[in-house]
Specification:
Elements (H helix, E strand, L loop, with lengths): L25 H16 L4 E3 L9 E4 L9 E11 L3 E6 L9 E6 L1 E7 L5 E7 H14 L10 H19 L1
Antiparallel strand pairs: 1-2, 2-3, 3-6, 4-5, 6-7
This protein binds ligand K1U and zinc ion.
């Protein structure tokens, strides 16, 4: 297994729209294993392939306390979303250290393939529903800071660029 580098905002590659996974083959299974290792190493609860510069519709998630309930979503589609929404604080491994409120559907039903290529229907609420919506945005090239005001987003961009410059020194 391998740790993969995570793209950081405002990297333009985070705005790439992912293409469907064509086959759940050995390459995709290796990518899933590497993404779980990368997500756990970064103490995240989710990771989209976009964030590791692979532009295919693949997400890994584990919102469990014991970090022992892995979920793989390949070619996910939201088939139902509750009319009720709620604003929750979100973070992102591609925007380290930034947390802010984003409005999301409280519950969603998602159809996707699992890590073996088998179709699954996930009925999600709470943190899982939030995480799925956040990760599916990544696959569409959207980062959560795009929900914030232009003023906040620009401040975050400046802060990230400064941190990246300092890390290179
Ligand atoms: O996509 C990512 O960058 C992963 C992201 C997922 C996420 C967290 C919180 C709300 C929505 C989506 C993270 O894992 S950020 C890590 C983090 O700060 C966190 C960890 C556990 C619970 C809540 C946040
Ligand atoms: Zn994110």
């Amino acid at each position: 297994m391998a740790l993969l580098p995570i793209l950081c905002f405002p990297d333009e590659r985070l705005h790439t729209v992912a293409k469907p996974v064509q086959a759940v083959d050995a390459r995709i299974k290796q990518l899933i294993a590497d993404m779980f290792e990368t997500m756990h190493d970064s103490h995240g609860i989710g990771l989209a392939a976009t964030q590791v510069n692979v532009h295919e519709r693949l997400i890994v998630i584990d919102v469990s306390e014991g970090r022992d309930q892995p979920l793989v979503l390949i070619n996910p589609e939201i088939v139902w979303a509750s009319p009720e929404t709620r604003i929750n604080d979100e973070g992102c491994l591609s925007v380290p250290g930034i947390y802010d409120g984003v409005e999301r559907h409280e519950r969603v039903h998602v159809r996707a393939l699992d890590g073996e290529g088998k179709e699954q229907l996930i009925e999600a609420e709470g943190l899982l529903a939030i995480c799925i919506q956040h990760e599916m945005d990544h696959l569409m090239g959207k980062v959560f800071v795009e929900y914030l005001s232009p003023l906040k987003r620009n401040r975050i961009k400046t802060k990230m660029l400064k941190a990246q410059r300092e890390a290179q020194r």
